[in-house]
Design a protein that fits this description.
Layout: E1 9-12, E2 19-20, H1 24-34, H2 43-54, H3 60-67, H4 72-93, E3 96-97, H5 101-110, E4 114-118, H6 123-133, E5 141-143, H7 156-165, E6 173-177, H8 180-188, E7 193-197, H9 204-210, E8 214-216, H10 222-228, E9 234-236, E10 240-242
Parallel strand pairs: 1-4, 1-6, 4-5, 6-7, 7-8
Antiparallel strand pairs: 2-3, 9-10
Helix pairs in contact: 1-4, 3-4, 4-6, 8-9
């Protein structure tokens, strides 16, 4: 499977892949829907959460615009409520690295591979997550929806990372993520390795269908895959046999998300350094916390061409 070209850049997801938010993402969506009169136990809530699951990895503002295509004010209000809920929950409960993720990031960077986090969180929430984890020094670049013309599932975020970090050959890149939209981004960008991480939200079959070249039980297994440039089978005693997506047995997917049909486990979405405005690792200039909450990347209301079919519009609350 190896192209013979060494990987020099790894782009990877954040929530559910390298960072564990303990379900904060799901609760933030639930609380945001509640501000629009959509509450648990209703058909509208069930439809909304199915859409949230199907579009994991995409920005909150795009999710809400798709659910409220004819009511941009409601989409904006829900986005602001989501941002506020997520921020308060992180302040209360904190975040934690996924098991082995911090060590894997260090090993990958020590091997000479640069690392870029790509997330659907707004710039303010991305800064909050990195501050909470103390991870500013563990990555070379971080990108949020505001940093590229289009987000997942389009290749723009990865291509933006290549341009920012001076990568001249797409075969020098790898992607690791746990959502269908992230895997599609990696494939469309021409990455040599596109690893599906089974803790990240979508099932093994869904990641495989999206085009994952490898299926791994956790991000902690990735350094070995990068070192071998995609060769061989990885065995993790905790999850069973995990291997290249080309065929053969593979480990089980994570547990389901309660109340969301067909979902897998996981969310999305070092030393604390207190980064200030203009940090070069941010995709664009400005404070990590200073942008408008949940601002997305300025795309017009509705879904982008080629995105999954938009859900049925939700009726306004009585």
């Amino acid at each position: 499977m190896s192209s013979g070209t060494p990987v020099t850049l790894l782009c990877c997801g954040l929530l559910g892949v390298t960072a564990d938010d303990g379900g904060i993402l799901e609760r933030a969506f639930t609380e945001a829907f509640a501000t629009q009169g959509i509450v648990p136990g209703t058909a509208a809530y069930a439809r909304s959460m199915v859409h949230v699951h199907q579009t994991r990895g995409q920005s909150a503002v795009d999710v809400f615009r798709a659910l409220f295509p004819n009511a941009p004010g409601r989409a904006e209000a829900a986005t602001l409520a989501f941002d506020r809920s997520y921020r308060l929950a992180v302040d209360r409960s904190g975040l934690a690295p996924m098991p082995g993720a911090a060590e894997a990031l260090q090993e990958i960077r020590e091997s000479g591979v640069r690392v870029c986090f790509i997330t659907g969180l707004s710039r303010g929430l991305l800064g909050l997550v990195l501050d909470t984890l103390g991870w500013w020094r563990k990555v070379d670049l971080v990108l949020c929806p505001e940093d590229s013309p289009r987000g997942y599932p389009w290749p723009d975020p990865m291509l933006c990372a290549m341009l920012r970090l001076g990568v001249t050959d797409v075969r020098e890149t790898a992607y690791a993520g746990g959502t269908e939209s992230g895997i599609l981004c990696g494939r469309r960008a021409g990455a040599q390795i596109v690893a599906g991480i089974l803790t990240g939200g979508h099932t093994r079959d869904r990641l495989h269908r999206a085009g994952a070249t490898h299926l791994l039980g956790s991000f902690a297994e990735l350094p070995g895959v990068l070192a071998a440039e995609g060769a061989g089978v990885i065995v993790d005693p905790a999850v069973g046999l995990v291997e290249s997506a080309a065929g053969g047995p593979a480990g089980p997917a994570g547990p389901g998300v309660p109340g969301v049909p067909g979902s897998a486990g996981g969310s999305e979405t070092g030393e604390a350094s207190g980064k200030k405005a203009g940090d070069p690792r941010l995709g664009s200039a400005g404070s990590a916390h200073g942008s408008a909450p949940g601002s997305g990347h300025g795309s017009p209301p509705g879904t982008r061409p080629g995105s999954p079919p938009a859900p049925a519009p939700l009726a306004p609350p009585p």
